[in-house]
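Pipeline run #58 for the internal structure catalog. This entry was flagged by the ingest filter as a single-chain record with no existing model, so it goes straight to prediction. Upstream metadata was stripped on purpose; only the residue string is passed forward. Reviewer on rotation: M.T. Logging verbosity set to normal.
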Amino acid sequence: MTDLVVTKRAAPLAQSEPTGAAFAPVSPVDIEARGVTKHFGKTKVFSDVSFRLARGEAVALVGANGTGKSTLLRCLMGLIPVTGGNVHLLGQQTDTSGAAALRQLRAKAGLVSQKHNLVPRLSVLSNVVHGLLGKHPGMRHWSHTLAPQSSPAAALHALERVGLGEFAGRRADRLSGGQSQRVAIARAIVGAPKVLFADEPCASLDPAAGEDVMDLFFRLVRDEGVTVVFTSHNVAHALRYGDRVLGLAQGRMQLDATAASLSAEDLRGLYD
């Protein structure tokens, strides 16, 4: 770890305040981690992770393989339980919420992953309709032909926003990698989420397609003022698209700084 990375870290705060409070938001806090720790059995992934994310903020989560970026993302969404500490998502503490309340909370968040996770034999339109399952659980939203008319209409609008309206009737397994990821973005935004999580959203794409996807993704979320947390190994993406950068290394949050205050060399120190 380079000294420069450490000096860029937010100044220590009182115990009651999370690390990210150095960037105290004027707007409401959408995500807050308070001393979050995660272990899998005897394996410690990370410990005492704390930060706040303001509404409309875009945050890049960076670090080497195995540092727990994807695990932290899932803890923030309430998809997996924390070992210690707690997470507040949209003002609600995830680990004290009942199953029904947690489902309703997750329905206000979207997820874009590097694997796309489309259903190959279904149409593009049906795959985007799946993005409404959190708000409308049940078999009707497994296919656009069964869903209420408003749902396919919303899905088609989401596809048009990512430039794939004419692909609505195509089977998902007949798309290119870049097209598949655009469909995954449409699925994530169809329910008008307040928070979006993206786990290495362009890692499986070639560089040109990856740049197109990142430009599209952030144009959409900036237009809507959505709060975004994205993981990335791409240093340039972290600095270009993030308002703020959080860096995990050696089981701790080693970096919490505005992107404008950092250089590519600062971030490379997290991979030493």
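catalog note: The chain has nine helices and ten strands.
catalog note: The chain has a mean pLDDT of 85.
status: ready for reviewer M.T.
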